[in-house]
Structures are given as structure tokens and as C-alpha cells.
Design a protein that fits this description.
There is one protein chain. The chain is elongated. Helix 2 packs across helix 3 and helix 3 packs antiparallel against helix 4. By secondary structure, the chain is mostly helical. The longest helix has 18 residues. The chain is built from eight helices and no strands. Helix content is about 60%, strand content about 0%.
Length: about 160
């Protein structure tokens, strides 16, 4: 009995010594994201989940819900022509009344900045000189071009499918 009491006391003290530690403070930092210099650097195809989720967040400025993602993924997975389904999904997103893309007046108020912001938002890179000039020229010379058209054209391009 004497040894049992000593052993129990030893285990209790051992547990007490190793179980009481001061909690360490952990600080998480956000890493800077490197922008692509050109479209040629993008080599990885987005999965259907990534493509739909990213398109939704680019247009609505918020994350897609799991229920909506599952509802949209069904036809995407089932349909053979993925480009057609992505076309329909993006059109549907752009036609929603609660989308967060700039309005026509806002786009036309500062076309160069709109072009830069759109490239950064959708392609995660700055436009090169030709891309910037060509898109600015198209918007300036054709009053019928809307921000929805620009977003649609850029989001259905092959570059948008890669990261």
C-alpha cells in the first residue's frame, strides 16, 4: 500500500508538471500574391468547382453557397460540352440584378482604370500595352459596349479557365 501511494503521488505530480503549459500566441500573416506577368504563365486548368466558385465571386463579390454550387455543378458535370454550360452559367450570373460589376457610367467615367481593374480582377495580372489599348479603343468607339459584355468576353476566354 505504501508503494501504491508513492506511485500514485508520482503519477499525479508527473501529470501536473507536463500538463500545465502556458498557451503560446500564434500570429497568422497573409502572404502577398504575385501577379502573373502574362497569360503564358498560367498552366493549370481550373476544376469545375473552382471555375464556378471563382466566377461567382468575381461577379457577386462574395463566396458561393454550397447549395447553389451543388445545384450549378449538376448540369455542368452531366453535359458534354463544358464550354456551352460555362457560357450559360456566366450569362446567368451577369444577368442577375445583384451582380457587383461596375455600371456603364462608372466604366465610361474612367475607361483606362476600368480596363486595369477588370484584368486584375479576372486574370490576376495587368493588361499588356496592346490589350489595354485595344480594349480601351473598343469601349471608347462603341457606345453599345457594356461592362457585362466586357466581363462576358473575358470570362469565357480560355485564359480565365487557367490559373
Amino acid at each position: 500500500m505504501k508503494y501504491f501511494l508513492k506511485f500514485t503521488l508520482f503519477i499525479f505530480l508527473l501529470t501536473l508538471v507536463f500538463s500545465c503549459k502556458k498557451e503560446s500566441q500564434v500570429v497568422y500573416q497573409v502572404n502577398d500574391v504575385a501577379l502573373y506577368q502574362s497569360a503564358a504563365e498560367k498552366r493549370f486548368l481550373k476544376s469545375e468547382t473552382e471555375l464556378i466558385s471563382i466566377a461567382y465571386s468575381d461577379i457577386f463579390g462574395t463566396s458561393i453557397t454550397a447549395d447553389l454550387l451543388e445545384k450549378i455543378q449538376g448540369p455542368y458535370i452531366a453535359f458534354g460540352d463544358k464550354a456551352t454550360v460555362i457560357d450559360l452559367i456566366i450569362r446567368n450570373f451577369l444577368n442577375a440584378t445583384n451582380n457587383q460589376i461596375p455600371g456603364n457610367q462608372q466604366m465610361r467615367a474612367n475607361i483606362p482604370q476600368f480596363v486595369i481593374d477588370t484584368y486584375l480582377n479576372l486574370y490576376n495580372r495587368y493588361p499588356d500595352e496592346y490589350e489595354s489599348w485595344k480594349l480601351r479603343q473598343m469601349i471608347e468607339t462603341d457606345a453599345g459596349i457594356t461592362p457585362e459584355m466586357v466581363f462576358y468576353a473575358m470570362m469565357t476566354a480560355d485564359e480565365y479557365r487557367y490559373y
